[in-house]
Amino acid sequence: MMEETEEQKGNYEAESFRLHMVTWNVATADPPDDVTTLLHLNSPKRPDVYVIGLQEVYSGPLRFVSDSVFDDPWSKMLMDTLAPRKYVKVSSIRMQGLLLLFFSKLKHVPFIRDIQATYTRTGIFGYWGNKGGVSVRLSFYGHMLCFLNCHLAAHMNYASERVDEFEYIMDAQTFDRQKAPRVVDHRLVFWFGDLNFRIEDHDMHFVRSCISDQTYNLLWSKDQLTMMKKKEQILQEFEEGPLDFPPTYKFDRNSNTYDSSGKKRKPAWTDRILWRLRRKAPPPDERRENRVDQEARKVEDGDEEEDEDEEYPLRIRQDLYTSYMDYSISDHKPVIGVFTLELRKMYDAPLVRLQPEGDWSADIDAMVLYSPLQPFSSSAWDWIGLYQVGFTSVSDYLTYTWVKDDEVAFNEEIIQVYVSKEEIPVRGGECVLCYYSNTLQCIVGISEAFKVQESKVASEEGLAPEKIDALDKTVSREDLWN
């Protein structure tokens, strides 16, 4: 990343955010017991965001049915690991064996908007549904980001088909929001996954010798993705860090030994993480020459993009790109990319400020106070959820109240919403309130943490903990999400 002059630094206040990415073909295996190394859980520099893309998550008929009702084992393990560290699963998407999860520190959640997820199947060579791409796009403090996790066609001879699949996925994925309706419209795109590009020409002995000597650079020129970038413009727009780690495929399971089967597959860097920072719009004259057959509106969009790029810069630096040999449940090794995003926030206040009024317990009806800080499209389907500190996702609430149905009083600044004592957990605990906007499909405000007191009535009546649990009101989450 280029150093900025003092004059440039004075034009805006940039803030840095740490992004930790993982791509791993898990070859239908269940999660490992320990992901401390994989997620850098002991690092003093805690990520602001985790993006985890998996391929070949087990999707047999029975498992896939259960996973459609309950979280799959990988999602559950990751949520259980990250939630106590105050990370929330903001979005996820699954297409058979492809899984993509986006986690954020709780403090950033109200500033992550325009969230959408989609998928694209590719049908080349009969891999219908097993290959393709899943993506999550969102606005992070106003900057449009897109994360695209792909599993492309296998085998040495299909390098061109892999590029065709990627182009098809990029063209097929669209989003129903006005801002960044296509993948290429986003300020920053990450393309990662089991891209399945191989190492050509070099024989097995030479490849393994280079790996043994750690002279990986001798293999780079014959890496198919590197070779294809020289002739495919769409690939030239993507950057990648140096492959200074051993090829991540193919290993004997439960070992660090490359394929010793009769097939003796040649090692390759099949698992990759690349990124594309949107280029600044060309000069107006050049834009007109290139877009003579397009509507004037698109020229205006280019002007808006150029203004946005200058007023709200976004820069990216890769701090780490490596694989971890410690994990051997699969025939692939996981690949990790750690990035610093440096950006100027387009907004730094939530849409809603909210707080509990008075003491909360299951012994008395409670009130929530909230104030819209900016105009936004509120809906009769907006709701406020009560969450235990350390909750895993938006759907992991203790109870909720409909904003419009349960409104008690309001003035120009503050709105009061009623919560029945019957809905408040008897056991209490450390909690937060979150305002969920149905129109924006995301949390737009979070309260400070507060204490919900244990029910005095239950305590005085000497109810045992298990009986207290039985008294807790069970809310039908299906009613809310349907």
Characterization of the model:
The structure is a single chain. The protein is of the alpha+beta class. Helices cover 22% and strands 31% of the residues. The chain contains 14 helices and 21 strands. It has helices spanning 6-9, 36-39, 61-69, 73-82, 159-172, 204-213, 217-220, 224-229, 233-236, 284-290, 296-311, 456-460, 465-471, 477-481, and strands at 15-25, 49-55, 87-95, 98-105, 112-121, 132-140, 143-151, 188-194, 271-277, 314-323, 335-343, 352-357, 360-361, 366-372, 383-388, 399-402, 407-410, 415-419, 429-437, 442-446, 450-453. Strands 3-4-2-1-11-10 form a six-stranded mixed sheet, covered by helices on one side. Strands 13, 15, 16, 19, 20 and 21 form a six-stranded mixed sheet that branches. The longest helix has 16 residues, at 296-311. Residues 1-11, 287-300 and 470-482 have low confidence and may be disordered.
Number of helices: 14
Structural class: alpha+beta
Low-confidence stretches: 1-11, 287-300, 470-482
What general form does the structure show?
globular
Fraction of residues in H or I helices: 10-25%
Number of strands: 21
Secondary structure blueprint with pairings:
Elements: H1 6-9, E1 15-25, H2 36-39, E2 49-55, H3 61-69, H4 73-82, E3 87-95, E4 98-105, E5 112-121, E6 132-140, E7 143-151, H5 159-172, E8 188-194, H6 204-213, H7 217-220, H8 224-229, H9 233-236, E9 271-277, H10 284-290, H11 296-311, E10 314-323, E11 335-343, E12 352-357, E13 360-361, E14 366-372, E15 383-388, E16 399-402, E17 407-410, E18 415-419, E19 429-437, E20 442-446, E21 450-453, H12 456-460, H13 465-471, H14 477-481
Parallel strand pairs: 1-2, 7-8, 13-21
Antiparallel strand pairs: 1-11, 2-4, 3-4, 5-6, 6-7, 8-9, 10-11, 12-14, 14-18, 15-16, 15-19, 17-18, 19-20, 19-21
